[in-house]
Write a structure and sequence with these properties.
Layout lengths: L12 E2 L5 H8 L3 H7 L1 E5 L1 H9 L4 E6 L1 H4 L11 E5 L1 H7 L8 E6 L14 E6 L4 H13 L4 E5 L8 H7 L7 E6 L1 H11 L2 E5 L17 E6 L7 H6 L2 E3 L12 H13 L1
Parallel strand pairs: 1-4, 3-4, 6-7, 6-10, 7-8, 9-10, 9-11
Antiparallel strand pairs: 2-5, 3-5
Length: 266
């Protein structure tokens, strides 16, 4: 049985928005503060539940008793819980309607990922600037069985609050390299002996694509507007496209990535 935490309202409450801890939490809206501190925020019960189930390293949980309720069901003996006032919760939250719960979590940085197995797919997201879109791509990728990800330097911050919400914490189960150049991704692909596939509009249908089943594959997906970088196009071993009807010219990158991943995994 999971032990329940003491009632949040019995804890000392931080009520001043000028409190040093509150200032730190509010500063984590900015990428520079996240990079310097190695910390980021998880907002809301569902997201925190997902993150905890996937092994997130939680430093502290901040609860607003007025909106979180009398009992805090996610706290553990090894994670401190701090009550805050509604004013403080509004200051630290990035949401228009602040949740009753915000957690301070530690960023997990990876400098290398192991070589993919024969037949395994690695996803490379190239210049996906919208953080919500990136989050959706990561969640879709894991649902499709892809846990190795490369993000190019022009892609949104992995720990941006919108990315975190879009991914719903799944990146704790993924191995993700960030800030890579196109050349670095291509070099990794060659090192692994993988097929490099790019998603582009003028390519054959992904549903008719044939790839070696005993060789890893790196799939590169770019933004809806710009597509993948020219370096990827030049180095590609194969190109695939999502066939479209009804005069539709392009698809959201997360949608296109999901379709391609499931089609290539069939």
């Amino acid at each position: 049985m999971t032990a329940r935490a003491p009632r949040a309202e019995r804890r000392p409450v931080i009520s001043s928005p000028d409190n040093d801890t509150v200032k730190l939490l509010a500063a984590l809206r900015r990428g520079r503060a996240r990079r310097e501190s190695g910390l980021f925020l998880l907002e809301g019960r569902r997201l925190l539940r997902e993150a905890l189930s996937r092994g997130a390293e939680i430093e502290k949980i901040f609860v607003c008793p007025e909106s979180a309720g009398d009992e805090w069901e996610f706290s553990r003996p090894d994670i401190a819980v701090q009550a805050v006032s509604p004013v403080v919760m509004r200051k630290i939250s990035t949401l228009e309607t602040p949740p009753g719960v915000v957690a301070l979590a530690r960023i997990r940085r990876e400098t290398a990922i192991g070589p993919p197995a024969p037949g395994e797919i690695v996803l490379a997201a190239d210049n996906i600037r919208d953080p919500g879109n990136l989050g959706a791509i990561l969640r879709t990728a894991l649902a499709a069985g892809v846990d190795k990800i490369c993000l190019t330097a022009g892609t949104a911050d992995l720990w941006n609050p919108k990315t975190v919400r879009g991914a719903m914490g799944v990146f704790f189960n993924q191995h993700i390299l960030t800030g890579l150049s196109a050349a670095a991704v291509v070099a990794l692909c060659r090192k692994w002996g993988a097929v490099l596939a790019v998603c582009r509009m003028d390519a054959p249908s992904v549903f008719t694509a044939v790839r070696p089943v005993n060789t890893p594959l790196v799939l590169v997906v770019g933004s809806e507007g710009a597509g993948v970088a020219e370096e990827f196009k030049a180095a590609a071993d194969m190109s695939v496209a999502v066939p479209m009807r009804g005069g539709v010219e392009s698809l959201n990158a997360a949608v296109a990535a999901g379709i391609c991943l499931y089609a290539l995994n069939r």
